[in-house]
Amino acid sequence: AEDVDPPSPLPAWAEDQWIAFFESGGDAAAAEAELARKAAAAAGPPRYEVVHRACFVRAEPSVKAKPVGQQTRGTVFEASAVRDGWVKLSHNAPGFDAMSSSSPTGECWMLIDGSEVGLGELLRLRPPQLSAAALAAKLVAPRGDELEQLRHHQRAQLARVLRGHAPRRRAGGQQPLAAPARAV
Questions:
Q1: Beta carbons within 8 Å of 82's beta carbon, 6+ residues apart
Q2: Among 71, 77, 140, 181, which is disulfide-ready with 159 (CB 3.0 to 4.6 Å)?
Q3: Mean pLDDT confidence for 27-51
């Protein structure tokens, strides 16, 4: 049997983070990874800004692919994919309809860093548009019936940790069930 002790000092984690911590056998990195995963999901698709005076939009992610348009400095757009140093423009990017109709693949790609062709940085990743309050609400607030889907022993573990002590694991990885927490 192994013990799972809470980290010290006790972090201010959301419930999902505590669950990730316990399910990983006490790995604090798992709780931090859960926070990063939720932050990325809350932020939405990545947004890029054109920082070079003008950048070609190409039909495929290759400097040899057919140019189907261009974007100028200051243009900000959402990316639907990022692959090997290229950004695939989202359907709501400025001018996407005209450029995609000129593209034999129907896709629009832009190179992030043009150093390989002597141009330097072309696009810069923009921070998410969420306010700190909106991001915090998305990270902490459970959605739908998530709380009801949590197993009883996970909720009991969380309650014990928040009261200052963790239960010991039983052989086979099963968690002891605790009586419901009482209001004081």
A1: 46, 88, 112
A2: 181
A3: 76
